Amino acid sequence: MEYREAAELLLRQNNILILTHKRPDGDTIGCAVGLCQALREQGKTAWVLPNEDTTTLFTPYLEGYLAPEEFQPAFVVSVDIAGKGLFTPAGEVWLKRGIDLAFDHHPSQEYFAKETCLDAGRAACGELIYDLIRQWGPVSPTAALPLYVAVATDTGCFQYSNTTPATHRVAADLMETGIDAQKANKLHFRTKSLKRLKLESLIVDTMDLYDDGAIAIAAISLADMARLEADERDAEDIAAFVGQLEGVHTSVTIRELKDGACKLSVRTDETLNATKVCALLGGGGHAAAAGCTVPGTVEEAKAAIMDAIRKVQANA
Ligand SMILES: [Mn+2]
Hints:
By secondary structure, the chain is of the alpha/beta class. It is built from twelve helices and eleven strands. The chain has a six-stranded mixed β-sheet. The model has no long low-confidence stretch (mean pLDDT 97). Manganese (II) ion binds next to loops.
């Protein structure tokens, strides 16, 4: 479904619930809040489903938007959710009952919703939501700020390879609403906790390099997190860190999860397709940034991802 059709479809609805993905990032949260605000400005009752994984970096954006328990939606929308495995436990309840409309920018979209508005050419789902809500009239600063955060965070402050001229045009439009973009950028890109710096230090000390340093694999175990007393906020977008090392073309960041599994984030340049690598392990994402979850220890995850990388390299 095209975003203009989606804009019309949404205007015919009321009592709308918006779902974000597991381990939410700035894009999914920013999209949910921006869309929720814009719907309210259209006179709709709209709420965002609480997401238990939200870190304190993003909870302030959700203030006033979280659905009360008694809210009974008539229309359920997901933002930035690529697949069924990315729903939160609370979101899965709605997945079973049926998602009415999904907005996404992942080429690995699984088409779980009745209607899907997908644009894989967009760096952030926030760009798509901006195009959607401006169909209803001028975008307010209250809706613009979370959408700016969505676009800025999903592009690493407009530095990742997904950033396009259109991304900058959207960001410029959002800035022109009068939002404090500097403040948002300072918070999300130029502020690090001491624990975060210690996490980065740990990665530097323990990462594995292959192929003369072209491949870097970093791992953070639950024991590491506990020893540094770090939380998810300290680890926000840590997957972008190891790829900053000079000479690295493919970087993998492994996070040990509580349930005996590991979450892997793969970042690549044009020499390798990250989605193809992660697809071999049941994951997905974008060509330059993808992820997957594998059972087992950190060491087993390292072996699994190196095996997947070698297979994709062999077929390239
Ligand atoms: Mn996204």
